[in-house]
Amino acid sequence: MSPITVALVLAVTTTTLAKIFEMHLERVESVMIQMLRNRRWAGRVRQRRRMTLGNTSTDPFLRSQSLTYYYGSEYLGNITIGTPEQRFQVVVDTGSADFWVTDYSCVGDEPEVCEHSLCDAGLVCVVFCPESTCCTKNDVEGRKNYCKGRRLFDSRKSDTYIKADGTWRIMYGIESVRGFCGNDTVRLGVDSERLIVPGTRFGQANKLSVFFSEKPVDGVLGLAFYLLSATNNVPPFQRAAELGLVDPIFTVYLEKVQQLDGKAHGGLVTYGGFDSQHCSETITYENLTAATYWQFKMKSVTAGDFHAAFPWKAITSTSTSFINAPVIMAEKVAKAVGAVFRLSAFRHCSR
């Protein structure tokens, strides 16, 4: 499969510099691929569907992201926050606008015994849990802490950190991440060509759901538009463009790695310019249908003998390896390429 390159232009009015910044990506094997190999994916999909029934939120202010997007995510970027710098590895996501990392307050001070099922708040806890402090009311299901084992941002160790107003919650399917906001210097990338954005508001997550126990990342770097943000923070790249630190364009180059064992070089995000090293000189422009997602009109779809022309709206998202489509169209495409349907349709990419 050929590498994928997407050049995205952010429409802002500002005086900019010609400086270009680079952030190297690492490609890791997605949770979905691991589960497929171990024959656990179909069971997980069925479980999620059962859990979703009756759990749809009616809160109009609660933003939701597709959980399957992050099960398929494969490309991670390194960033730093604060002074001195604290390093994190995040999902680089053109399909969302929120930037958050796990906070040191997420781990908490409860003893490890509190994670045992008998130590959930209630009479059973009072009788059987060896630690009475575990028996206080807890606002999340169970006591298991999914922040452990991650890099955690510690605002106490940053000289440039400023506490910001506001709390937030983002739904991933029926699970969620929640936290509060801070303001600090953010650096996209970790080498000399990184983009430094001072005074950036970001999310500090102090509650993670079970999904993140399967995905060892430290947060999400959203590259979509501010109107999509659940944290009500301007995304770092949009802020950099508004400050005149970069031209309002970034290029995403995703490299296909044939044999993946652990982590490997996965590509490059070029902030403030076009990636002429990896990209073709032929550029095709498409107007966005809304300044929320990187969303555009898809003129037609062709697969084998199947062809359909209809003005569907499509979203380009770097956070997932999934290709999502309306059920009827997906069935026709799957049939045209000889895919086998097992809760998802699969066809070897070389065909």
Summarize the structure.
The chain has helices at 31-37, 41-52, 67-71, 123-128, 236-242, 327-337; strands at residues 4-9, 21-28, 63-65, 75-81, 86-93, 99-102, 162-172, 175-188, 195-208, 219-222, 249-254, 263-271, 288-291, 294-303, 306-315, 340-341, 345-346. The chain is mainly β and 351 residues long.
Please write out the topology.
Layout: E1 4-9, E2 21-28, H1 31-37, H2 41-52, E3 63-65, H3 67-71, E4 75-81, E5 86-93, E6 99-102, H4 123-128, E7 162-172, E8 175-188, E9 195-208, E10 219-222, H5 236-242, E11 249-254, E12 263-271, E13 288-291, E14 294-303, E15 306-315, H6 327-337, E16 340-341, E17 345-346
Parallel strand pairs: 3-7, 5-10, 6-9
Antiparallel strand pairs: 1-11, 2-4, 2-12, 4-5, 4-8, 6-10, 7-8, 8-9, 11-12, 13-14, 14-15, 16-17
Keywords: Aspartyl protease, Hydrolase, Protease, Signal
Signal peptide: 1-18
Protein name: Peptidase A1 domain-containing protein
Notes on the structure:
The chain is mostly beta strands. It has one domain: Cathepsin D, subunit A, domain 1. The chain has 6 helices and 17 strands. The strands form 3 sheets. A 6-stranded mixed beta barrel has the order 4-5-10-6-9-8. Strands 13-14-15 form a 3-stranded antiparallel sheet. The chain is globular and about 65 Å long. The model is unreliable at 52-70 and 139-143 (pLDDT under 50). One of its GO terms (biological process) is proteolysis. Residues 1-18 form the signal peptide. InterPro entries: Aspartic_peptidase_A1, Aspartic_peptidase_AS, Pepsin-like_dom, PEPTIDASE_A1, Peptidase_aspartic_dom_sf.
